Structures are given as C-alpha cells and as structure tokens.
Predict the structure.
Amino acid sequence: MSTNSRYKTHRGREFNMSAFVEKNGEQKAIGNVPMNARGDIIDAKGNVKIPTQTISRVASNLKNNESKSVSLKADDTIKPAQKLPPVEAEPAVVSTRDIIADTGPATEVEYDDGSIEIVPKESQE
C-alpha cells in the first residue's frame, strides 16, 4: 500500500486500510473473479496462483493507446458458397376427391406443394 494508509469514510470516521488488508488479506473477495482481499488471483482451494505484484507489473508494462490494425475486408482464403440449381421435381399427389364444378362433374387433385387442380371428367354418352 501507499505510505498514507489512513482514509476517512463518507461519515468522517478514520479507516486504516493497510491494517485491514493485513487482517483480512486471505479472505476470498466477493464477486465473479477468483481473488482474495489483497488482490491475488487464487484457485478453488484458496492458494495464490498469481500474486498482486505480478498483476501490477504486467499492467504497468502495457503501452497506452496501443492499437492493432484489423482488415474489414473478406478473407480471400474463404471461398464463397456455390449456388445450386433449383430442383425441378413434379409435385406428388396428396389427395383426390370427386366434386361437382360449375362446368359439371370434376376431380379435385391436391399436391404436396399446396396447389390444387380441378380436372373436369369426360362425360360418357
């Protein structure tokens, strides 16, 4: 910690942060990061995996405003999908029934694609 480890709370009471960290440093911190109160990364058993000093050193070595160029164009190694020709298949007959149309007796034929055809019956004389 820094040399000044005494802080005031929002209610005006003094708080010694370094004494608090020494007393509670091994306690698991609340949150979704596996960390103890000192800031060390810990495993499931509470053993220190990455100490706070290493984390601070890595963070200080990061360069500010470091950027990486990324192309927004499509990757040339990926080939576009080939468009397949449409399949020209005759629809299958689902059902037929005899009806009487305006022009006389007929057969209604329903196909699997949902279409319906009315075929007039030939009259026998």
